[in-house]
Amino acid sequence: MFRGEFKEVPADLAPSEIVRVEDQRGHVVGAGYANPASGILVRILTRGGELPSQEWAEAQLLRALSRRAERLGDVADLRLVHAEADGLPGLVVERIGGYGVVSPDALGAEQILMPWLLPAIEKLAPNGTILRGIAPVRRKEGMDLRLEMLRGTPPAGPVVIHEEDIRYEVDLFGGQKTGHYFDQRENRALCRSLAAGRRVLDVFSYTGGFAIAAALGGASSVTAVESSETAVAAITRNAAANGVDVAVRAENAFDLLRQLVRERAAHDLVVLDPPPFARGKDHLEAALRAYKEINLRAMRLLAPGGYLLTASCSHAVSLGDFLAVVDDAASDAGVPLTRIAVRGPAPDHPVRVEVPETDYLHLVVLQRD
Ligand code: SAH
Predict the structure, then answer these.
(1) CA dihedral in degrees (26, 28, 30, 31; nearest 10)?
(2) CATH classification of 54-157 is 3.30.750.80, yes or no?
(3) CA-CA distances (angstroms) from residue 81 to 84, 129, 348?
(4) Ligand 1 atom closest to the CA of 184, numbered from 1
(5) Pairing of β 337-343 and β 302-312
(6) Does domain 3-47 fall into CATH 2.30.130.10?
(7) Is 182 in the pocket of ligand 1 (CB under 6 A)?
(8) SS3 339
(9) Residue 26 CB neighbour total at 10 angstroms
(10) 98/76 Cα distance (integer angstroms)
(11) Confidence band (pLDDT; 50, 70, 90) for 103?
(12) Alpha carbon of 356 to those of 65, 288, 309, 348: distances in Å?
């Protein structure tokens, strides 16, 4: 709850203090942890009279685990806790190569929730626990950035994770976000199932996620486009580890798409999985223009019958916004398309109806006539 929502705030409120919130008539709304240094003064953990405790936090974790087991089966590498979406505000926990990777981006998440859950995380991820507190939003909470081992010894190099039979290396002390984009797991599997015999272009490839899935799905050729040098090196290593060929173009995607359209290069499956173009509502217009540009160009690259898998992971871009941009790009490109599917994030990134920020990843699948 934001500071402005409170009529009365005790002057001696301590950082990470567990507090009860009451409405104006004195009825208990819930309890949560406070941070007087943050615009988000209290994050509510429990509703009604229950006070949050270690047992409560462990129960939240257990529920998160059982939901994942129902929908994903026994998966080794995944996001175990997705913050608000799993009732544990500010806290992300992943298991990557047997390591627990804990990413708190609120003070109470680091000082209250994390210590409560560390014993359980130790059992779930025996190799060690890493605190990966590198999200810039931590500064708004008055927190420093931290990247350190909480338990165990750091891996000697990148760890290897498995997505079905695919091997990806993940650099736990470098990489982006928490090292691997688990949220696109099922969408990569879809790409694989569509790829047989197709010329595939994976734009914004990171460590080759969609590209390698497509190659294993029997693509006739695969090209990955990625501008980060460290990611490009990982694409090559990941392709070799999976025994597939991926041509890598270490270039700016905007420039390369323009060039490929000029060259009239045809593809039968194009993936667009860019970083979030809109970090906040202020950047929405510019972001929508950028989405339109890359989609328009990608559509022009499609051979008859070709697929476009196009994603947005910008929190500020709603599904409605994104569908409108895609439709607009299609009409400007003059390319006749059928919309085959609209998909969201993987089951380990649940979308909570009452928390709109959790509905951030949209994937639209289109096919050219
Ligand atoms: N599809 C990937 C995740 C992509 S994340 C997967 O399945 O794992 C987005 C990627 O886009 C990042 O690796 C980032 O380095 C890259 N990127 C950002 N801007 C870019 C640009 N202008 N040109 C090419 N790559 C870019």
Answers:
(1) 70
(2) yes
(3) 9, 14, 8
(4) 7
(5) unpaired
(6) yes
(7) no
(8) strand
(9) 6
(10) 8
(11) very high
(12) 22, 19, 23, 16
How far, in Å, is the centroid of ligand 1 from the Cα of 2?
Answer: 33
Q: How is residue 62 written in tokens? A: 């257990």
Six-digit token string for 256: 């390369």
State the distance from the centre of ligand 1 to the C-alpha of 42, rounded, in angstroms.
Answer: 34
Residue positions annotated with a catalytic role: 313
Please report, for the chain, the start and end positions of each structural domain, with discontinuous segments joined by +: 3-47, 54-157, 181-368
Query: Taking the model in full, what pTM does it have?
Result: 0.95
| Euclidean distance between CA atoms 293 and 285, whole angstroms | 12
Return d(Cα 75, Cα 67) in angstroms, integer. 12
b (16+ CB within 10 A) / e for 212-228: bbbbbbebeebbbbbbe
pLDDT, one tens digit per residue, over 207-243 is 999 999 999 999 999 999 999 999 999 999 999 999 9
CATH says 181-368 is which class? alpha beta
Contact at 8 Å (CB) between 47 and 29? yes
